[in-house]
Amino acid sequence: MDVKIKFLGAAKSVTGSKYLLQVDDKKILVDCGMFQGQKELRLRNWDKLPIDPQQIDIVVITHAHIDHTGYLPRLVKDGFSGKIICTAATEDLMQIMLLDAAKLQEEEALFVAKKGYSKHEDPKPLFNTDDAKLVMHLIESHSSNSEFNLLPNVSVTFHNAGHILGASIVELKVTGKEQQKKIVFSGDLGRYNDPIMYDPEVIPEADILLTESTYGDRLNPMTDVENQLAKIVNETYANEGVLVIPAFAVGRTQSLIYYMHQLMESKRIPSLPIFVDSPMAISVTNLYEKHGGLHKIKVTESRNELISIFDSPNIHFCNTSESSRALNEMKRPAIIISASGMVTGGRILHHLYHRLKNENDTLLFAGYQAEGSRGRHILDGDKTVKIFGEELTVRCHVREVHGLSAHADQSELLRWLSNFKKAPKTTFIVHGEKATAIAFSKTIQQKLGWNTVIPEYLQSFELFSGI
Ligand SMILES: [Zn+2]
User: 274-277 and 384-387 as β-strands: parallel, antiparallel, unpaired?
Assistant: First the structure.
């Protein structure tokens, strides 16, 4: 039996995760992400896949983030009709996130058509809502920590990766005539000692390992998050202003609510109303209750911390656009959490439109702002920013909180790697920018003495032959 791998994404980049595994004549795609960020990367979404989607037998998904799932609707539109395997929480999140991604695609195509700056007569979305709905029909969910057969000689086990609800490390076993080989895909790894998510599970062995390296070159301590937040909230309160926080709907919004709740309980910040203004964040928050076993917040018959945190009298979910717009008039101190996290779209835009000019208000960035994004410009101190076609002056306070990332930092990645009892034959460094992947590869070689490879986009490797 022969096993090969081809890197169709997340090779010297953090997006577009797609790994094509070929076991004899069977083809398994692990993750099916969309390329995001710089234009050069985004254009790859429009390239023809180097494999006909009809030829792929099965897809396995590590977790629901769009850079791991966002190409699925396109894959299905282009002829893939096999099963898509993931955990139940990933399935629930995908239902919300893929439909949202489809809506964004449709809106963007309309916008481009209206502005007329497309070379195409009729700019089309990469996929639409119907394509996203078709994906959901192909999903088969499995529970974690139970091995099941993907193909007659290939089995899979999902292990908890922390990171976001349902996120998994994928352990794949290939059974040949004489030998069994194990290929482990780290997926995206979460943090150790996160207040909400569990630590990534220990995997003791792998013949081949693919490890993410998003923060492989830096330390991102989370010890000080509460102090940073307390200082910023108290400062905003003293200014009698409103604190506006752009945040990703999945994970980040819930972490922020959790921290604010802790700070209010311990009276380190005043008891302020928190408005969660993102329909997607509201749906995702509900999934924390459905999948109570996947996080540390207690949900039992006698004790429901989830309700006390996410349904406390301070929390207000803005379900309608009227309730969202009503916030624009608000003058008393309050906290508004809204998406998108990088201020690229969503309801956060109208909050910024109304708040940027107010000297009393504070805009707080709680996550990574990509190079060239609107959020990055504001954070870098640009005095004006364009929203809804209008050039606005930034007069509000601009702050940043560090340590809220859902990704393991370098020390945590190394901690997870050092659980392997012996070095894998090859460790592929994926899901990291080029410079980061190089730095992390060197660190692994120095600290663990492992054989590492940083694959190129579209590069293939023979993993085993004649097993
Ligand atoms: Zn992720």
Answer: unpaired
Measure 216 CA to ligand 1 centroid, in angstroms. Answer: 15
Q: What is the 326 CA–ligand 1 centroid distance (Å)?
A: 33
Task: Label each residue of 32-47 as H, E or C.
Answer: CCCCCCCHHHHHHHHC
Nearest CA to 211 among 6, 375, 455? 455
**Beta carbons within 10 angstroms of residue 65's beta carbon:** 28
The per-residue pLDDT of the chain, averaged, comes to 93
466: left (phi over 0), alpha (psi -120 to 50) or beta: left
What phi, psi does 184 have (nearest 5°)?
-115, 130
Instruction: Report the alpha-carbon distance of residue 310 to residue 281 in Å, rounded.
Output: 12
CA distance 271 to 293: 29
pLDDT digits (tens, 9 = 90+) for 89-114: 999 999 999 999 999 889 888 877 77
Using the mean position of ligand 1's atoms as its centre, give its distance from the Cα of residue 161 in Å.
Answer: 10
Q: How many CA atoms lie within 13 A of 301 on its CB side?
A: 0
From the CA of 379, how far away is ligand 1's center (Å)? 23
CB 208 within 8 A of CB 425: yes
Residues measured by CB to lie within 5 Å of ligand 1, the ion: 65, 188
Expressed in angstroms and rounded, the spacing between residue 132 Cα and the centre of ligand 1 is: 19
Angle at which helix 88-115 crosses helix 129-138, to 10 degrees, equals 160
Q: How far is CA 241 from CA 192, 247, 356, 408, in A?
A: 34, 19, 12, 34
Identify residue 346 by its one-letter amino acid code: G
Predicted confidence (pLDDT) per residue in 229-246, tens digit: 999 999 999 999 999 999
The token duo for 197 is 């998510």
Residue whose C-alpha is closest to residue 18's, from 261, 398, 161, 51: 51
Tokens 């002829």 sit at which residue?
A: 79
